[in-house]
Amino acid sequence: MQSNRLPIGGRVDRSRRLRFRFNGTVIHGFAGDTVASALLANGVSLVGRSFKYHRPRGILCHGSEEPNALLQVDRGPGRVDPNNRATITEVTEGLTVASQNHWPSLEHDIGAINDWLSPIFTAGFYYKTFMWPRALWDKVYEPLIRAAAGLGVAPKEADADRYAQRYAHCDVLIVGAGPAGLAAALAASTSGQRVILADEQAEFGGTLLHDTGSMIQGMQAAGWLVGTVAALADCRNVRLLPRTTAFGYYNHNHVALLERVTDHLADPASGLPRERLWQVRAKQVVLATGAHERPLAFADNDRPGIMLAESIRAFINRYAVVPGHRIVFATSGASAYRAAADARAAGVEVVVVDVRPVAACGPELALLRAEGVEVLTGHTVLGSTGRKRVRGLIVAPVDADGRIGIRRKLTCDAVGLSGGWTPAVHLFSQSRGKLTFDTAIDAYRPGRSVQAERSAGAANGSYELTTCLAEGWEAGLRATGRDGARSFRVSPATPTGFVAVRVLPGEGNGRAFIDFQNDVTAKDIRLAVREGFESVEHIKRYTTTGMATDQGKTSNMTALGLLSETLSRPVAQVGTTTFRPPYTPVSFGALTGAARGALFEPVRKAPLHDWAAARGAVFEPVDRWLRARYFPRPGEDMRAAVSRECRAVRSSVGILDASTLGKIEVVGPDAAEFLNRLYINGWTKLAPGRCRYGVMPKEDGYIFDDGVVARLAAERFHVTTTTGGAARVLDHMEEYLQTEWPNLKVFLTSTTEQWAVIALQGPKARQVITPLVDGIDMSAAVFPHMAVRTGRICGVPTRLFRVSFTGELGYEINLPASQAALVWDAVYAGGEPYGIEPYGTEAMHVLRAERGFIIVGQETDGTVAPDDVGLSGMIADAKPDFVGKRSLARPDLMAAGRKQLVGLLTEVPGVVLDEGAQVVENPGQPALGHVTSAYWSDACGRSIALALVAGGRARHGQVLHVTTQAGFTAVRVTEPVFFDAGAERVHG
Amino acid sequence: MLLIPCPHCGPRSELEFHCGGEAHIARPTNPAATGDQRWAEYLFYRSNTKGVHAERWLHVHGCGRWFNVRRDTISDRFVTADQIRSAEEGS
Ligand SMILES: [Zn+2]
């Protein structure tokens, strides 16, 4: 029942009938229809409820600027998407769409009570109402406001679609394939340079798609369009991107495009992404983004059936749909006359109401009257009648002084409004180009460019078709580095020009909507000015005008004009708000692309990950790595498992995958000098074959990283870093090497992923490893603690470190990562007679804390200097300088009362403190510091903790208090060592 | 996203770079003899220029080299890009 479909004409494919559901009702349409055109074809005019007042709303526009007709689109499970504009949603067979923001139904909406209460929902309503009391903000007001806010419902299922992203480079990017963009593309294509032409619509052509009256170069506009698109498609250097919106213009001609790939397909080929995000870097950009028509503001100007005049023309000519059978066109300019003429030609009864007096009208008036159309010049619109559909327009003559004459009701079932045009300067403004206000067209137009771009056609404020084509051509030539002009023969001349009217002269009552999507009325803006707001940015936020998802494309200029009028200040002085990306809404899916699920933050797995997983390890994220935290046996909780693992290390032997340690190979004649300059320690005297624990501060003196450094040869060091610090330490080294000491002969190579590290720790470690090693004398006298040897283990080359992060005798076996599993299995098998246990990061943390070893990032936080954690003894005083040395003498770092590392023992031994808990002298007093590490220690048979406490070293023996979930608990300050204070066991 | 002129690789997307802040902040040649105020200025004081600003960039996901550029902080236009020259190349 396409009652409003014309029998012939339009660009829809009548041979392909499509059905879709709107609020459960089956709607028939044709291929080429949008949901909006199909709904209108079926006589559906009510498509939504407004945001604030729940007023019945219909379709206003035919393009992406639509503020009212926002629909929930359902393409199946995981493919539900709210707030889709009916005017750009293409009809596909079986599509399901629904209107939003009403309950229980679109026809009967309880929320419409807001419309009756509208006197209280004025500008700043939320600010005024929900201010007090503060206690109600989170629990009452916010949920209330959110529930009442009228847009679609966020989908609850994960998005089932795939989204692609790609980068592209081109010489010329042309945005918009209307007449100006097409002419620009034609001109640019002849250069042979790489051209991209993108347009947000399904078909190229812009206004030519509904311009049935113009002749270009002797051809009908539609014919010229076919030839032009075909010519461009034949150019190998031109890429055509329909259904592609340029939504963001960023630095250095970086333009983001959103291509809609499958939404218009009922049954897309598998593997196609739903959308594709293009990031284009263009040498030159041509903006041919067109212009937006403005509605007129009068009381009840928002009833369903009231549309933009040019949109009525588009629905008739492009979709062969007549939105009404008796249409009143209310206008303040010339372009609506052409819409009226086309409507009349389609058999619609037409009346034109023009605000302009006869003298201000152009030749369009006589032309239309000659066709027998009634035109009321010098008339205003006082209001509309009807409820869920417009039924009439109340009009009256108005004289130059605003005196209103005798009113008259024009019966109608649709209204076309035209309040003039606004160039779509969004992308130009985003490019940081300077907008200038042009009173001749009552709009901001592109002024001085900042980036390599140029605007053409309606986007540039030029509305005549012949000018659009000529400007486009010239822009395309110039963008390719050439000069020249071409004139296009166009007939008849485009009717242009309008008189800017902010709010039509009226009787002052009733609500004239300016911003349809956010329900902002002329009264709201006037009220804001009365309340003292003057800045356009403030008024925007106070009234919310232009802040909806359409960003005020149809309303901003009227709002600015009204503001200018109310403030009695020229528009140019009122200014305009900032245009920000995106031009139209962009799905999160497209922005996210492939970075979802497992690819959201890729996980790094150590070489022995699979072994640990098979063994039932519980993992924890450490930086990007997943590390085994502990290996529970059946029935064990974390404390039991960790205690067992610690016991194995202390009493016999344990094995840990330490491969995530960062590793950097530092090589060259100046390697030792280079390290001298970066660590607090000295390296010159470290003999080849020896290791040293190093502390690396930044220039501000604070600890940046730490780790064991082995000297393998005079000019070769094997540096280790923390797991999380590997990349930044290398960057830090490179920075100093390149920028401060470029004369040092040193090479740096990251080897983190090349070396697997197996830590074997415990009194039995030597017995376990010795039978597996070739070419290294393992005896304690020859291979002491803090030594490194090279040789083979299980036949695999190794750098064998004798080091300990547990306080026990131990080794760290460095070997090629590819051989890690083989060696691990052999070591593990060798340890079985001794009861070897794999241990995880948690046991590692406990073991090192028992010995008082710090972890950078746990005991330090970027404000902790070496002395604060008791490491000043490592500073090589003989060195005249190292990065950070001078800062250690800064007054702040020498001041008394700095936080220092201490041990804390709870008075109740079983209480394990919370890491991060505050430490105070007495409850109620300010914090002295905080707990940095806290564990149950199996070796000590009690809890232990490390903390940073102001003046901590002078407090040994004092009782302090620490916050817990249940109040304060008493602790005694100790040395930060809880086990083997003489450090004898490592030599075992 | 900026298009940054790496003197070694040519113009590349900002994604590949790490900004190193203001350029030409010379490390005092004798820190031990540098007073607290002067040292604090070296560490913490930056010009925060509105206009042409000399700054350092690291082409971290490219050639791995540091270089200096002058960028107009108002327009983001790059004025020059210089290699940081090594001692052998002369200074
Ligand atoms: Zn580079």
Structural notes for this entry:
The complex is a heterodimer of chains A (988) and B (91). Chain A folds into 5 domains: 13-115, Ubiquitin-like (UB roll), CATH 3.10.20.440; 165-291 and 423-480, FAD/NAD(P)-binding domain; 295-417, 3-Layer(bba) Sandwich (FAD/NAD(P)-binding domain), CATH 3.50.50.60; 656-846, Probable tRNA modification gtpase trme, domain 1 (Gyrase A, domain 2), CATH 3.30.1360; 896-988, Elongation Factor Tu (Ef-tu), domain 3, CATH 2.40.30. Helices cover 22% and strands 29% of the residues of chain A. Chain B has 91 residues and is mainly β. Chain B has a single domain (3-25, 50-90), classed as Folate-binding superfamily (Folate-binding fold, 2-Layer Sandwich). Chain B is 10% helix and 36% strand. Chain B has one helix at 36-44, and strands at 3-6, 10-13, 18-22, 52-58, 66-72, 78-83. Chain B has a 4-stranded antiparallel beta sheet, with no helix packed on it. A two-stranded antiparallel sheet of chain B has the order 1-2. Chain B is globular, with a radius of gyration of 15 Å. Mean pLDDT of chain B is 89; it is low at 86-91. Chain A binds chain B through residues 167, 250-254, 279, 281, 432, 450, 699-700, 731, 734-735, 738-740, 742-743, 880-881, 885-887, 890-891, and chain B through 1-3, 13-14, 18, 20, 27-28, 30-32, 34, 36, 39-40, 43, 56, 58, 60, 64-66, 75-76, 84-88. The complex binds zinc ion.
